[in-house]
Description:
The structure holds 2 protein chains of 2 kinds. Chain A is an alpha/beta fold. Helices cover 34% and strands 26% of the residues of chain A. Chain A contains 8 helices and 10 strands. In chain A, the strands form 2 sheets. A 6-stranded mixed β-sheet of chain A has the order 6-7-8-3-9-10, sandwiched between helices. In chain A, strands 2-1-4-5 form a 4-stranded antiparallel β-sheet. The termini of chain A are far apart. The mean pLDDT of chain A is 89. Chain B contains 11 helices and no strands. Chain B starts with a helix and ends in a 14-residue tail after the last helix. By secondary structure, chain B is mainly alpha-helical. The chains are: A alpha/beta, B mainly alpha. Chains A and B meet through helix 1, helix 2 and helix 3 of A and helix 1 and helix 4 of B.
Amino acid sequence: MSTLTLSNVTYRYGAKLALDDVSFSLEKGRFCALLGPNGAGKSTLFSLLTRLLVTREGSITVAGHDLARAPRAALAKIGVVFQQQTLDLDMTVMQNLRYFAALQGLSGKAAQRNIDAALDRLQMRERSGEKARSLNGGHRRRMEIARALIHAPQVLMLDEPTVGLDTASRQAITAHVHDLADSGLLVFWATHLVDEIRADDDVVVLNKGRVLAHDTAANIAGGGALIDAFIRMTATQQEPA
Amino acid sequence: MAYLVALRAIVLREALRFVSQRSRFLAALVRPLVWLVVFAAGFRAALGLSIIPPYQTYITYEVYIVPGLCGMIQLFNGMQSSLSLVYDQEMGSMRLLLTSPLPRWWLLFCKLLAGVAVSLLQVYVFLAIAAGFGITLPVWGYVFAFPVLILTGLMLGALGLLISSTIKQLENFAGVMNFVIFPMFFMSSALYPLWKMAESSPLLRDICAVNPFTHAVELLRFAMYGQLNITALIWVALAFICFMAASLYGYDPARGMGRKGPRP
């Protein structure tokens, strides 16, 4: 059974079509990049997957739970890292993590155990007493990823998480998240940066609200560079001015 | 259980934030104290108050406006909490809250209760300082006021929540502060009794009489003197239900949090 399935998902902002009949399914243990230019509908898709938006057209299933019919069970299986940073900068790393654990209904020893495990996985344990404000951009991101893993989700979704980071931080975070996928998590990573994607990663190419391709990066690249294939694909979609 | 865990975390976070913002705490206290000590002192000579319920003796103007000022603290606090909600929406932490698996109405209700907890703290510190100036309530009044303050705090907080669900930018908010806080406060029984208002304008009196803030103040005023004002209670409860229902509608994901399009 697929961990994340979208069937015929369509979304409109008023009359404007933002997503048009989007369907794909993803398996656990995979790193899947959602690749698309700005305005392709990535953020809308993310809002739908995290139930910040709801559509009546199409269905989304997370780990067997329908997001519309059993939203709480489905959301409990999702860890999210938003594009905007969502840390409370005046609280310590640990306070931020405890707050999030509580929002997931976790407290006491169980929460602490999960927090410690998540911090260890991202090698952030020794920074847990620091104020979030004192962390640099890369570490803040890393902490947000650790936070998204506290409730042991099956899907980790990240919306352009490396925006605004320097190259070293970007590479470190991309590598970390690939490791997470190797450990059995489904990672769904929205980006417009092709160099964050490895050859055997899954890629869903989204443009103007439609899925243009869903395959491994190597197959989409077709022997050439992924960036060229991506540009070719999205350029042929451009309507004449 | 998970509900209570989330409630505690949300209230604690709000309280922590409030305490760490010392200037906000001071501003919240100085505002009503200026009214009480400066405005009321000047105004008492101009305004004669007869004996009206719930008072059984002549009272000074300072005593009259204490419930109104407690209401003002909660009104400001409700708006301030919703200001922080607008900020949270812009900064993304609202997203974090709303993607929690707990039901959305509960999460928003927790936010409201957190705001109420902060306002209770402010009100009782204010009452303590007022007592220091010799403006006191009957001893039981402090106790009876407590449940009422929770209800009025919820009502005013829900109004703030409703406003935050319709406003997407912080800049718009300053206008709303002026168009909501000042009319609500001045067109109420906080500063002058309604019969006094009727002397100058019956229309104004009627407007004041439907203002839910008037009823919040009256409910509080009666409770402080050990009495229950049923009419005010019904008004406040109804207003709370309406504001809460409307804000839940405003935060309904099927409506996309009221957003017209994807964020830029």
